[in-house]
User: What shape does this take?
Amino acid sequence: MQDYVIRAMDDKGNIRVFVANTTTLVNNARNIHNTTPTASAALGRTLTAAAIMGTMLKNEKETISIQLKGGGPLGTVLAVANSKGEVKGYVGDPNVDLQLKENGKLDVGGAVGRNGKVTVIRDFGLKEPYIGQSDIVTGEIAEDLTNYFAYSEQQPSAVALGVLVDRDTSIKAAGGYIIQVLPDATEEALDRLESNLANTPPVSSLIEKGYTPEDILFNVCSGFNMDIKDKVAVKLTCDCSVERIQKALIAIGRTELERIIEEDGEAELVCHFCNQKYHFNRDELNELLNGASS
Assistant: This one.
C-alpha cells in the first residue's frame, strides 16, 4: 500500500482530521539508519507526525521540524517535512534498545527520556522561523505532541502514532492520526469524539489488518459526516547534495579548513539524515579554502 496522508473535516465544522499510513517510509528509515526496534519506533512515530504536520503547511517552500530531547539514551530525535510529503529524520543513537515494558510494549519513553523539551520549528522562508516548545510528558511522542498542541499552539488535539516492528526488525505497520477540535465544536460532538477515541484500537494494529487511512478515518470518526479534502503521498527523501556539504565546509571558516588540510589532507562528511558519505581530497579542500572567510 502506498504511503499517504488524508485531510478531512466534518460537515458541521467540529473537527479536522489527518490520517497517515507511513509503513514504507518508516521501514526505509529503519534500513538507512539500521535502527533497533525501540529506536525504529521512536523515529517512526516522529517521522509520521512530521509527515502529517507537513500537510498542514500552506506554502511548498515551508518546512516543519519536530525535535525531541528528553535526556534519554536515544539522544535527539529529529524529523523534518514539507508540504509536498517529503520527510527525513534521524535519532542520536540508533543502536539503543531497552527491555520491553511489563505490558510487552517497546519502551520508547525510556529511550527518549522524560526530562526535556519537544520543539517544533516552522520555517516559512522568512528571516526568523516560528519556534514552539513544551515539556516532554511521557517520551512516547504522541502524548508529548498532544501536550505541545494544547500548550504551545492552544489547539486542542488528539494525536495517535504507532509503529509495529516485526520479528525480523522490519516495520510491519506504521501510521497515525491527528484530530483537531475547531472553535465552534459542540459539546455533543466532543462527547462523541471522546467515546470514539476510547474505543479505537491502536492505529498500528488497524494498519496491520489492512485498514487504509480512509478506513481509519471513518472508524475513529464514527457518527460524524466526514468530507475528505485532500490526499498527499509521503515518502522518505533527503535533499543533501555536494553543494550543501561544500557550503557546510566553507562555513567552518578558513582556520579550521586549513587545519584539516594540514593534518588530514582530506575530509569525509556523512549526512545525518541519509548516511550518504561525501569525500573531499586535498585539491578540493584547497579550492573550498579560497571561498572560506577567516
Remarks:
- The mean pLDDT is 94.
